[in-house]
Amino acid sequence: MATATSPSLRFPSPSLSLSSRLPLSSAFSVSLRPRRGASRPLVVLVSAGLDAKPTVLVAEKLGDAGLKLLKDFANVDCSYNLSTEELCTKISLCDALIVRSGTKVSREVFESSGGRLKVVGRAGVGIDNVDLAAATEHGCLVVNAPTANTVAAAEHGIALLAAMARNVAQADASVKAGKWQRNKYVGVSLVGKTLAVLGFGKVGSEVARRAKGLGMNVIAHDPYAPADRARAIGVELVGFDEAISSADFISLHMPLTAATSKMLNDETFAKMKKGVRIVNVARGGVIDEDALVRALDSGIVAQAALDVFTEEPPPKDSKLILHELVTATPHLGASTAEAQEGVAIEIAEAVVGALKGELAATAVNAPMVPSEVLSELKPFVDLAEKLGRLAVQLVAGGSGVKTVKVTYATARAPDDLDTRLLRAMITKGLIEPISSVFVNLVNADFTAKQRGLRITEERVILDGSPENPLEFIQVQIANVESRFASAISDSGEIKVEGRVKDGIPHLTKVGSFDVDVSLEGSIILCRQVDQPGMIGKVGSVLGEENVNVSFMSVGRIAPRKQAVMAIGVDETPSKESLKKIGDIPAVEELVFLKL
Questions:
Q1: What is the DSSP secondary-structure string of 136-186?
Q2: Burial class (CB in 10 A: 0-12, 13-18, 19+), 462
């Protein structure tokens, strides 16, 4: 019987290319409004009229190669260290703005542009300093440069790994203080030690390559990384618990998402080998910093080398920073001359492409599609994303998602139903929960291709009135194992199907079982022996924990045979409650799926 566990995590696969662009006419426009209730924007379009040479304001230092690309196409104004007032004054004369992390591009900046500002380029990955909602409302595209610093970050991870193992920072401070403490700073060798790489994406795989060259045994946890790519560089993919419990060193390379926030905590530290050493050049929030201090004090963690922190810069009295077993650097992962030049070229290409009217693959925000289209499709847009989220969470760790089939049942002619938005939202649901990527209509296909994800579409033409755009949407993932065996259809794929009822998305099929549960909150799926009292038993367990049940539906093969119970819940049940449900004798397997 399968027991309920936390949903598996997926981390991004390596980029294949950054040069893909979708051609667009040189001048076009679109009316913009943010999608109500959306945590991330949906569609990227940029208005570009190129009768005159555009002006690009570079507000922070950019590499010469990037500046040359800009100057070949546009008038370039390099004005650094602008105050907010000065930036707001200049921006009304500019078509594009390029910043790093030091310039705040606030709503006031977009309002001051008078509608002229078409593109904001962030020379780097993070976009915390750009008001994305304001950019979208003002029709301004925001692009970033996410790949140019891969090697630099990997090299810094290896530098911290070696420096930590040999106490370089502490010994340096000791010598400069006039001491000569050779016995105190005896280190450990890297050769023959096991390094667990958590997150086998672009940076993680580069760290693994370099660690192999140092003679380390490298394992990795990334449930959705292709096993053949790991094998090609001599890395074994393992489960999360196996990775952290068998490692001498752990290197973190996952994005910060709701699923990875405080992924290393008291519970996970307790599972680690005593004396483990930890490197983090990913995101500070993936470690519970208070728990790390406790693990260092207790000896579970021998040392930590950190380049990123939950709060940056960290407080001067931070117990973690001041800990004698911690080596700290001020977010230097991308800080090499070569990486900075690469970022300059990458962001310049993205900004120039956007100003030409091309659709940027690195876009991170999006205006709306035509309001009349979205108004009709909105409930199906929500359904599409949630089906993607459900389907990917049903995939068992270690199974790489490569082939997805989407079926639309409709009475409309092909020309009367544009499915690009629906496909983009399914892609969004499949990728965003386990990645730092912002998926939208523009970059959805590119992002799927980047990760080796092939999405095919099929239409089932129904008789009847074409008044409603769709009858149902079905998502199938082929060639994978499932965390919930009953989600496997008769043809061998994970299959989920949904419909819109009274404007609300509903899950109506899991595998071969018919169910009917509103896709609000989260869902528990149980396979059980069909017998009296099961609804009451499960409801009682949830009620004891004050977990509200919004919907409950049972689909069965035949009376007294196997059945699948789908339970919609408003709150997240504890692991203990899920275990109690799993321990009910008639329950054969269960899984908790977070929407």
A1: HHTT-EEEE--STTHHHHHHHHHHHHHHHHTTHHHHHHHHHTT---TTTT-
A2: middle
User: Is residue 243 predicted with pLDDT exceeding 60?
Assistant: yes
Burial code (b: 16+ CB inside 10 Å, e: under 16) for 88-116 equals bebbeebbbbbbbbebebbebbbebbeeb
CA distance 203 to 221: 14
Please give the pLDDT value at position 521. Answer: 84
How many Cβ atoms from other residues are within 10 Å of residue 17's Cβ? 10
- Compute CA distances 370 → 35, 48, 141, whole Å: 12, 17, 17
DSSP string, 541-556: HHHHTTPPEEEEEEEE
CA 496/CA 273 separation, integer angstroms? 40
Read off the pLDDT of residues 507-548 as tens digits, 9 standing for 90 and up: 999 998 889 988 988 899 998 888 888 888 888 999 998 988
Q: How many CB atoms lie within 10 A of CB 574?
A: 11
Work out the pLDDT band at 359, boundaries 50, 70, 90: low
CATH number of the domain within which 285 lies: 3.40.50.720
pTM for the model: 0.60
**Residue tagged 């999608």 (tokens):** 35
CA distance 591 to 204: 29
Amino acid in position 265: N
Choose from 20-24, 189-193, 256-260, 439-443 the range with maximum mean pLDDT: 189-193
Element spanning 423, H or E: helix 420-431
Residue 151 CB neighbours (<10 A):
18
Catalytic residue list: 283, 312, 331
Look at the chain and count its residues.
595
CATH number at residue 430: 3.30.1330.90
Same domain, 283 and 156: yes
Q: Kindly state whether residues 205 and 300 are assigned to the same domain.
A: yes
The total domain count for the chain is 4
DSSP state of 250: E
